[in-house]
């Protein structure tokens, strides 16, 4: 999976088309490389796992495999929201592990040219960690924040994940 | 030097066969020492070593041929009655077999290392009616170092009488005493763990079961299409009920079959013990009769791999601490020879392994005193301890009753290893002790680590699964019966005091609000410790397959994994070891704060 992240960078000057899955969180639109996404599922029963960081919602059974679920709202310190029928879990493979991320809504798959990706602005108003932002896409009337979830889990955080009591 | 063998298959065949023969050989040799008259046994040993020699000369492993040839010669003389089996001869033969194992391990690793085989051969040579040529070859050997020059003149001086050689050879053994340790460790690695040999019959059975399963699946498809086409809707429920019963039967059979394929007889671990016991007994100057029962008991590979070390420590302890010297035994009216009984048996879904000796037993007063001296416990702690708790002190890291550290014991590591490994396996340790008459260590281990019997419990509306292997008993208790001792909730249970852990607090579950005065206490045991887990309700017993939580959630305290229940939801599996080991502090703190 590391390769996809690298690819995005190397393609920057090549100006190739990449596909992004766009999703909403607290009325803002985000995009993530489609190659990262394994599947998108509806909300289902989540089993709470004790003694984990607050943004770990719990685990689900994805066809016989137990995978952790992370609330992106909590991860980015956004206000809590009720789950509704548009809430989705995006299952992705992050650093070699399957994981689900809860988002408000998944809208579409868009194609953009590498050239359209601009470096993230130095100051971001929302609570998103600067770290996870791979860039900003300014397309017609929409503004998309391109996320790199691999960066979300820094080495420290991965350790914390398993040792937090 | 890398091994240049044209036919890889041939080489693999050789390695598999040799490994098997060598494993058996150790055992046979030790038995031979006990019953030297057994001609059948003698012949079997001779055949084994001969086969190894033949195969290695065919494949051109010269070092192996040299060692096995000499060993074979000595064995041949024993067989013909020209030599008598003595412990000294056995020492040398066993050393030679160790060397063979090391050489085979080298071949297996794909590298032939130049090893000093001459010193071992030199020890074998005195037992042969050697010719002068061999003796000169030996002394001329440039590789021979240390022991070899000492051995070389020996044959000449002792040519005539074999009897004289024996004590001299025994002396020779001493400088090399450290050496055998290394090859022995190597030898253990000979056993290959990456492939499994499965009985063809088991495979056939498995195939049959899969056939059944396919049949049931077809039945199910048929039933569904019948139902959709509206044929006999009334009979559907009936048929479906029958089908699910059969499916249940077939899958549980299938599960058993697959489980069985992963099973190994515990003999794999047990068979190295006669050798270890023999060497230990000789080193300690004790006379020991090791009796092994139930070595055909089968258990999961993963468990087999883990119990080797704890058993070695327990057996060592039995020999070193448990059994007395022959003189002491006679003085206390016991037979000269001590016995150590090693047995394995199935008990429900557990395997029970016991190590029992008829030595002096464990003196609790001595244990308590030692623990105090070493500062492992305080007087106050000791005062509230029952006799069982005192015995359990021997598991503390750093605990040892030995005044001086020796090769064998005294560092206080052994029992800690036992405890750690048994905990890892979700096992339980029990100690039975009778002062003056011996002690018994009983290990109760789960049969497998992949599928477990578990007790489903409800904690504030959340469902958790507790491995049944560590559950000792469950009881319904009124909360008024709980007491507080030093900030720790406890329950008086018969004659002992049981510390309690509220699972709801440990797992910080949201309070579901029902304020009932009665609750359930699940008493779990991890290794030698017992703790009561307080839960809201017991839901029942279920066989569950363990699913990993992935590496992000791998090391959560108190959670050992997860499982998927009948309705597709995930239930977490409680890890009693994590709770008792790491969670204890949290429990105390939280209940004190409450």
Structure described in brief:
Chain A is built from four helices and eleven strands; from the N terminus they run αβββββαββββββαα. With 165 residues, chain A is an alpha+beta fold.
Key attributes of the depicted protein:
heterodimer, A: 165 residues, OB fold (Dihydrolipoamide Acetyltransferase, E2P), six-stranded mixed sheet, 4 helices, B: 594 residues, alpha+beta, disordered C terminus, transferase (chain B), phosphoprotein (chain B), histidine kinase (chain B), Sig_transdc_His_kin_Hpt_dom (chain B)
How much helicity do the residues of chain B have? Answer: 40-55%
CATH superfamily of the largest domain in chain B: Histidine kinase-like ATPase, C-terminal domain
Q: Please give the order of strands in the largest beta sheet of chain B.
A: 10-14-15-13-12-11
- As for the CATH topology of the largest domain in chain B, it is Heat Shock Protein 90
Approximate strand percentage of chain B = 15-25%
Number of domains of chain B: 4
The CA-CA distance between the termini of chain A, in Å, is 29 Å
Q: How many DSSP E strands of chain A?
A: 11
Number of helices of chain B: 23
Which bin fits the share of residues in helices of chain A?
10-25%
Organism (chain A): Geomonas silvestris
Keywords (chain A): Chemotaxis, Cytoplasm
Subcellular location (chain A): Cytoplasm
Main location (chain A): cytoplasm
